Amino acid sequence: MTTSSALPEQAGRTCHNVVNPFHSTHYFAPELAAEMAKAGVENRRAAYFACRAAAMGAVGPGTVTATFYNFKHELIAEHVPAVWTVTTPEAVLEARLRAVDATLRRLLGKETVESPEMAEAARLALRAVEGCSRQARPLYAAHADQPVPDAPHLAYWHAATLLREHRGDGHLLALLDAELDGLEALVSHTASGRGMSYQGVMATRGWSEEDWAAAQERLRTRGLLDAEGELTEEGVRLRKDLERRTDRLDRAPYEHLGAEGVARLTELATGFTTAAMNAGAFPAALFGK
User: What superkingdom heads the lineage (predicted)?
Assistant: First the structure.
């Protein structure tokens, strides 16, 4: 059941910003590396590509590049489709869920994982997901075909994954409309002070210093970046407009949940995400400028 109260401006974005990190905790966890190694995947980059892509099946590098957007295609092609010769998408999905379970239990503790609040968060997030749509959202649609886990903390993680990929697919549409390629999106986001750090991008996305410099120059030519690599006024406007467009494309799940439900999910998600961050879920070097 939804509520008729109006959804405050940016309430969906605010909720996403605290739900999304809950999904992401496992990417940096030793539990994921261990479980993927058992599945035959020991390379950390291959493990990441396999984990996020597995719901789509044994896809090739083109599909991964298209749906992940900001990774260099050549980096992806080093690991995909080779990863599917040592494991299967089904085995990866099972390994991922085991890793998520172990990671959340370590970061949050048994009491939090099995709390009534966790079960409430799962119910609210899954209700929001009812408002999502599959059309033109390949990563969301693939994950939406996966079963909802029984355990509340895993059900909440599953719902967080769906909300993350739903917004992410919409964001890619906004980036395409703004005529920003994958690296230009990263460069402008980093320049905004809200994205990954330069060091984080270079360590994970496969781009070279020359690639980064060329993207900066393309953004300067468009008047979006200044000589020091900072956003111009036009660049700031573009990044704000991107978020507004993404909000519009992602409004359905939060409107479906309603203002009271969104506020409560935001409250619960903030507590869980804060606890995970305080427990060291994310490398500090990945964020900020």
Answer: Bacteria
289 occurs within a structural domain: no
Q: Is 284's pLDDT higher than 80?
A: no
Amino acid occupying residue 46: A
pLDDT at 56: 98
Q: In a 10 Å sphere around its CB, with 0-12 CB exposed, 13-18 middle and 19+ buried, how is residue 46 labelled?
A: buried
Q: Which residues contact 147 (CB under 8 A, 6 or more apart)?
A: none
* Tens-place pLDDT, residues 217-274: 999 999 999 999 999 999 999 999 999 999 999 999 999 999 999 999 999 999 999 9
Task: Give the count of domains, the chain.
Answer: 1
Hunting for tokens 């809200």 — which residue is that?
194
Q: Which structural domain, as residue segments, surrounds residue 214? A: 11-281
| CA quadruple 148, 151, 155, 161: dihedral sign | negative
Q: What is the mean pLDDT of residues 80-93?
A: 98
Which tokens go with 205? 């996305």
* Residues shown for the chain: 289
CA 169 to chain centre: 10
Detail the DSSP E strand segments found in the chain.
none
Q: Any idea which of 90-94, 234-238, 272-276, 281-285 has the lowest mean pLDDT?
A: 281-285
Residue 218 burial class via C-beta count within 10 angstroms: exposed 0-12, middle 13-18, buried 19 and up: middle
